[in-house]
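Protocol step 4 of 6: structure prediction from sequence.
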Amino acid sequence: MKMLGFARRSCIVGGRRIRPSLFESRSTLPVPAACLVANGARQILSDLLGAPVSLKLLEPVIPGEAGWSSIGADALVFAMRGAQSDAAIVLRAQDALALACAALGERAESLRGLSAIENELAGRIASALSSSLSPVCASRDPRQVNRAKSLEGYVTYFELILEEPVQARVGIALSREPQSQVAPGLKTGDLEEIGICLRVEIAHGFLPAASLALLRVGQSFKFDSALGDAARLVAGGAIVARGQCGTLGARRAFAVK
């Protein structure tokens, strides 16, 4: 979705520093939905690694062509189908190695290629993590995870940054932005059958709570409203209108000003 934003760099115009306005593409994926994914992934990784996991969430973005090219370079991509959107778990080479080694109780000393066992283990970790993606893609079967060669066709991307017990990143890519739900609006006629309790305040005053407990029959206290002040029409504690109190025939009346 195109949204109004401001350039990161400012310029001097008329002696003032101004950041030009622009329209930029922003993801409409709700951050709370990404947080649900992060919480689920944190619990899954904690069970797999046998240790408490600390991670951070980077908010969803819409990468450009160069961004997708950088994200997918030398990365392992595990794709899955969903009712709302297709999703992919992206593990870059160094992150896949770090996770696989951590699952084996080891620590990667330097960047190297994955062994056959580590490669298979990275796939199983991704398959386990896929069950946390339901909030963003409504996956039909989280166990159906397949290797993909590229990230072509994906739109939205966010990352989970693991800090403990291993430093690594887990990328999440989605093929579709969430659809906006449009609800029918209310008309005045829809409210005709709803009953509302109204009350009219001719004058009002304020007393400490302790004073209310000491009030006795016949005792008087001061109203703060001055003579001639407008009365108030109140519904559920909210002032609906101000006006004057009077009579209309044999009935009391309130005239809205």
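Step 5 (inspection) to follow. The mean pLDDT is 82.
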